[in-house]
Amino acid sequence: MEDVTELSWKKIERKAEKCGYRDGINDGRKSNFQKSFDQGYKEGFKNGYAIGKYKGALMATYKQTNKEDLKDPLLEKISRGWCQVCPSKDTSNLDINEAISNQNKTSNNYLKGLHEKYKDKVKIKLPQTT
């Protein structure tokens, strides 16, 4: 009888260890995902805010000095078009720091391009992004 009880106990122990391991892995993934999401969201917000602020100031200033609205493909539908992560089908091996760096470069290049194109027409200070 003692052998059966010991075998049952070992079986329960193994199941508990497997469940604990599985839960630990799952919690680690969730924690890492949340941390990466928070970091990406913060950087994305900074970039989006800088672009929106510059775009708004540019359009308002242009409207004050010109009769027509400012029409430029660079100012149309920029929200998803500049995302450097969205085109990726598989993000399982995505390095968050590399993705943020690429996004920052793209956003900065976009702002610099707008600024270069309109610096003679409107006097707006280029916002600082990271």
From TrEMBL:
Coiled coil start-end: none
Record's signal peptide: none
Domain of life: Eukaryota
Keywords assigned by UniProt, alphabetized: Cytoplasm, Nucleus
InterPro entries: Essential_protein_Yae1_N, Yae1-like
UniProt cross-references to Pfam families, sorted A to Z: Yae1_N
Protein's name in the database: Essential protein Yae1 N-terminal domain-containing protein
Subcellular location: Cytoplasm; Nucleus
Cellular component, GO, one term: nucleus
Domain Essential protein Yae1 N-terminal: 20-57
Species of the source: Brassicogethes aeneus
